[in-house]
């Protein structure tokens, strides 16, 4: 009998979390404006019942790109803040989503605001947060809410566990770090005038040093210009210094 597919395993994991909320996020960042609006609308729809309250900042990083209706919503939010709370900061404006007029302003401006929170009630912890013009979105969701969002956003954006996205980002950063290190290592060896020699017919790597395991060509010998120690060892030990001059002093102590 065939084992579960990746899709079925993912469905099982969602189902397991249906009784409580776990931290999820939209995997894509810096979405195009029209896509960001679509994603925000999906969250506003799905979370309408569990998050009947919102808190929004009437400021935008896209102030020079605001469509007329969005700019109008921004002004209306600032006026609402000033009239109701006697403040004109435009920050932390409470929105009662049961009020059609306030809900309309929220929906129009959510994807453009520097910060939006959807809440179960005023002063409660956010269930959903739109960060910096919805350039990133995080949410505390049940399994059912995740499934509804995935249906709404199919082909548009993906909703994944935040811890999984963080793990993937760590792997990417580590891979990029090793790639940069390998590139810098080759630049260092080229600086010393060393390159691995290959037998063209047999395509075999140069013999390795029995002591350190590095190619023998990286060691002192003919053509190595007074190299005193293994050039690769110098790099392996000193690469964190980030200074080629320091490595040169180690390789050429004389």
Label this structure with key terms.
254 residues; 2 domains; 7-stranded antiparallel sheet; 43% helix; elongated
Could you walk me through the main structural features you see in this protein, from its secondary elements to its overall organization?
With about 250 residues, the protein is α+β, with helices and mostly antiparallel strands. It has eight helices and seven strands. It folds into two domains: about 10-160, no CATH class; about 180-250, no CATH class. It has a seven-stranded antiparallel sheet with strand order 3-2-4-5-6-1-7. A hairpin with a 6-residue loop joins strand 4 (about 115-120) and strand 5 (about 125-130). The termini are far apart. Mean pLDDT is about 80; it is low at about 1-20 and about 200-205.
């Amino acid at each position: 009998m065939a084992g579960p597919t990746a899709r079925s395993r993912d469905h099982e994991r969602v189902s397991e979390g249906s009784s409580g909320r776990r931290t999820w996020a939209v995997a894509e960042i810096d979405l195009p404006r029209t896509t960001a609006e679509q994603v925000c609308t999906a969250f506003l729809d799905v979370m309408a019942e569990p998050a009947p309250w919102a808190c929004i900042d009437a400021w935008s990083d896209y102030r020079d790109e605001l469509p007329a209706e969005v700019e109008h919503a921004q002004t209306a939010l600032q006026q609402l803040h000033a009239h109701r709370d006697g403040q004109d900061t435009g920050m932390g404006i409470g929105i009662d989503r049961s009020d059609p007029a306030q809900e309309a302003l929220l929906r129009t401006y959510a994807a453009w605001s520097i910060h939006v929170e959807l809440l179960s009630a005023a002063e409660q912890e956010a269930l959903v947060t739109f960060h910096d013009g919805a350039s990133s979105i995080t949410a505390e969701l049940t399994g059912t809410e995740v499934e509804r969002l995935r249906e709404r956003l199919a082909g548009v954006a993906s909703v994944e566990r935040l811890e999984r996205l963080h793990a993937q980002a760590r792997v990417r950063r580590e891979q990029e770090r090793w790639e940069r290190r390998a590139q810098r290592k080759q630049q260092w060896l080229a600086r010393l005038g060393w390159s691995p020699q290959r037998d063209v017919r047999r395509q075999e790597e140069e013999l390795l040093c029995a002591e350190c395991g590095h190619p023998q060509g990286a060691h002192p010998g003919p053509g190595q210009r007074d190299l005193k120690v293994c050039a690769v060892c110098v790099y392996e030990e000193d690469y964190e210094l980030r200074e080629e001059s320091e490595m040169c002093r180690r390789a050429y102590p004389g």
